[in-house]
Amino acid sequence: MRAILAAAVLALSSAAASGPADAQDVLRGQALAERWCANCHVVTRTAATARSDGLPTFPALAARKDVTAATLKGAMSASHSRMPDLQLGARDQDDLVAYIFSLRGR
Ligand code: HEC
Description:
Layout: H1 2-15, H2 23-37, H3 58-63, H4 69-77, H5 90-102
């Protein structure tokens, strides 16, 4: 299943043009989040529990009024806390931002 998703995401991302966030960016961002961020953060809206160590979940980040694309990118670029320097490219950051904002309450 993971492999299928990854293949689909790759196929989508090569077709995606840069521009405003669209469904393809969100999908790609979700795959990136599951791969790079889920070790520490709860990255899905459907997770039953938050972590006991108080790390911000992605839905919680999305809900915060002070969180903008710029602050998210800042947090991703700085090696925050124990977070490794992931060396995310601009495209990866944009897609992660698109994904995180897709969790904003609908
Ligand atoms: C090794 C663990 C670890 C990984 C992996 C990790 N984070 Fe974090 N992250 C943390 C911790 C710990 C905090 C809270 C403490 C801090 O801000 O220093 C945090 C906080 C954040 C914040 C909130 C900063 C704020 O303003 O409150 C954002 C945004 C964030 N992480 C994004 C990401 C993204 C996006 C990824 C994946 C690309 C990621 N993190 C991967 C550990 C991690």
